[in-house]
Design goal:
With 447 residues, the chain is an alpha+beta fold. Helices cover 36% and strands 15% of the residues. The chain has helices at 40-59, 91-97, 105-124, 174-177, 185-200, 210-221, 226-230, 263-267, 272-281, 292-296, 299-302, 333-340, 344-350, 368-380, 410-423, 425-433; strands spanning 5-14, 17-24, 29-36, 70-76, 79-85, 89-90, 127-128, 137-139, 147-149, 156-157, 389-392, 397-401, 404-408.
Length: 447
Amino acid sequence: MAYRYEVLKGLGKGSFGDVVKAYDHKTKSYLAIKIIRNERRFHKQAQSEIKILDLIRRQDKKNNHNMIHMKDSFLFRGHLCITFEMMHCDLYAALKKDGFRGFGKSTLRAYAKSLVSSLRVLRRSRIIHCDLKPENILIRAPGSNDIKVIDFGSSCFDTQKVHTYIQSRFYRSPEVIIGGEYGVPIDMWSFGCIMAELHSGRPIFPGRDEKEQLLYQMEVLGAPPTSVVQASSRRASFFGKNCEPLFLKDKKGRTRLPGTRPLGKAVGTTDAVFLDFIARCLTWDPAARMTPREAAHHEFITGVKPTEDGYGPAGTPVSRSRSRSSTSSTTSFSTRKRDSRVDATAAKYIASTTTTVEVGSGGTTKSASAAAAMMQRARSDPSSSSNTTTSVGASSTTTSTGSRHHRASDSQLLGAKQMRMQSGEYDRDVKTRGVGSTNHAPYATDA
């Protein structure tokens, strides 16, 4: 092919075309070539896949986030071709080779860490994989726990969703089944299903069609919340007027009532930590579903138990079920962390400064010049210490000394920011952190 690639054997087939093993006579190495069928609809989807693969390659420059990297793409006799590195086998084949007995806890944790790393990059890039399953996760070499996520042929950006029929059925999220609004959380649902299957060796929700798939999901998780059902366009196909399930029997005529099968029995384990990890992935409401970032700090991944205040070592947040629409979530750890990036040096100083902010009897605070002076002193004397504490919120900074409090308003913080910009210090700090620079990657928020 193209006077360069020598096709050796076929590796697999799909509706898109074929995947073959080839030898690259230019680089003297073996690789895999995905050959797209010579049809207009497949070409259009393949061009979208190349765009996504190119973004992944730029977001994962060091190639350490466990996603397949595109080496090259070219057109050969009307067929669009994409080249990848050669891998060993997929996780389903590994399960099958082991007699579908499932993997041990250490192997499970290694796979989970790798997949969470991949999902965090995808979320930051606002990419929905749309077909996460064991067959699309490849092991790099025999006897290795290193894996890579492949097949972005069905993927899309969360701002450019065009398909409603996505995801393989066993790993399909409920919002896709009943016609709800979907986004990157559907990959976390698939991830939860995959982890359960890798432990037990069998799919947790083995439905033969969408009705039975939803039936299996409700049997373990209970009926979905009314708000989730009412927000779905296909609810009439699965639920009655009062949001009650219409189908309670499987294909063999066995009745399966919602919430009658414990998650531990479905997964085949009594490990409370692992079950909590799975349960947070398999949440009906996508807004309350665990995010990749929260998964990375979960006890199953870290091996460290959370403290009573919900934080692990070094102040790392431990995941918990929550609704992103909650107003209280705006003052969460992630919000404080994001806001503190505006001036990390000043925030660090204010937490340990010896300066006491005076408050008059009427509760009025000092002017913007006082706040600006504090931030200026932060740069010249970062080693000062005191009992003064600071919390950085969504739009204000609160400094407390004993029973006295000072809240710097938005205008005060803006005045301090303008002073820093005039002195040239703000621009240097921004460039040092990589925010706002010309080569900064898009959507680079911590997932």
